[in-house]
Every structure is written in C-alpha cells, then in structure tokens.
C-alpha cells in the first residue's frame, strides 16, 4: 500500500540541527512531490516547504528560509528535512506528505505518521 | 499571519449540518483542500479539487467554493467528526502553500 514512513522521535538542544527522513513506498517515488508540515504544541498546521523528487527542485516557506534544507535520495525513495539553529519554538510534530507534482490545485493525500522533535536544554 | 482565514471554533448538534469556511484572496485562483486533524493522529485529506473526496471519506463531507471563500460542509455530523479542520491552498504568489488557522469542530 502507499505509505510514507518517517524516522523516530528526536530530542535536541537549542542551537543544534535535526534531520528527519521520510521513506516512500507503494508508488512511483519520482511522480509526486513531498511536502513538510509541522504542528507545534497547541498550534495549527504550518507548511514548511516541498521538494520534487524527480527534478530535485525545492521551495521553502519564508518563515524557514535559511534554516531548512530538503534533500532526497532517489535510490532509496527517501526525502530528508533538516532544520538548523533549533529553538524551543521548533518543538513540534513534523509530517511529510505527498502532493501531485505540477497541479495548480494542490493537495496532500498521503501523510507520514509524524516525527516528534523536542528542543530542550 | 495566515493568508487563509478560518473561524477558530464551530459547534453542531449531532446529526445536523455544519459549514466551515476559509477565506483568502488566493482562493479566487486556486481550490482549497481540507484536512481533518484529531489528537495524536496524522492529518487526513477529506476534500480536494473543490469537491472531491478521497476513497474512504464518507459522503457526508462535501466542498464548495465561491469568490474568495471555500467551504467544507458536513451533512449529518457524527460524533467521530469532532476534530480540527484546516484548509490549505497556494498562497497569493502561487509558489507556496499556506494553511488556514484551523477550525475546532465540536459535535454536541
């Protein structure tokens, strides 16, 4: 079945970086974008950015420009999201989600299970 | 601040109909998608392309759009529909996505 499986929870100190992985299976990896979305404690959903696994093109939300890096390894159908200079406000559940490449009317139809990142000294 | 605006909370009596709205300029050009979020679970897509339901989503969920407003309607709300609902669409530039602030639905 189509699924996205994310890496395990992480605990990081302020100022450190975290790298979360998202492994796709059950579909052609290069046919869909992968988006990253987070939900901080008590907050709403926040879109962080996307990557097109086929072309490698990326787009980051303005709030994360300069701190986030999204990469992919097509040989293992995996996308990575690295967030640097972590602060307590980055404590959140991070999700990857599949989206239809090139669609004007966009949506995210398959979601990973979420990875909890805790930033604490 | 979000480019998509939702009411923070809405309530509905069991079995009645409720509409959740999402406003934003980009909705004049792009359809919204809608997500259901329950505590401890990943978001679930419930409506896309204005009024399409993914497989497994009950037909009591429907979507519509007019001008700068997208709506999610639940006809005959059930207890299990109690959740937070988020709209999502491209932003005004068209190059990025943005979520609404979310609407907490309470089923009474």
Description of the structure:
The complex is a heterodimer of chains A (121) and B (108). With 121 residues, chain A is mostly beta strands. Chain A has strands spanning 3-6, 10-12, 18-25, 32-40, 45-51, 58-60, 68-73, 78-83, 92-100, 110-111, 115-119. In chain A, the strands form two sheets. In chain A, strands 2, 4, 5, 6, 9, 10 and 11 form a seven-stranded mixed β-sheet that branches. Chain A has a four-stranded antiparallel β-sheet with strand order 1-3-8-7, with no helix packed on it. Chain A is globular, with a radius of gyration of 14 Å. Chain B is globular, with a radius of gyration of 13 Å. In chain B, strands 2, 4, 5, 8, 9 and 10 form a six-stranded mixed β-sheet that branches. In chain B, strands 1-3-7-6 form a four-stranded antiparallel β-sheet, with no helix packed on it. Helices cover 0% and strands 45% of the residues of chain B. The A-B interface holds A 35, 37, 39, 44-47, 49-50, 59, 61-62, 95, 97, 104-109, 111-114 and B 2, 30-31, 33, 35, 37, 42-45, 48-50, 54, 84, 86, 88-90, 94-102.
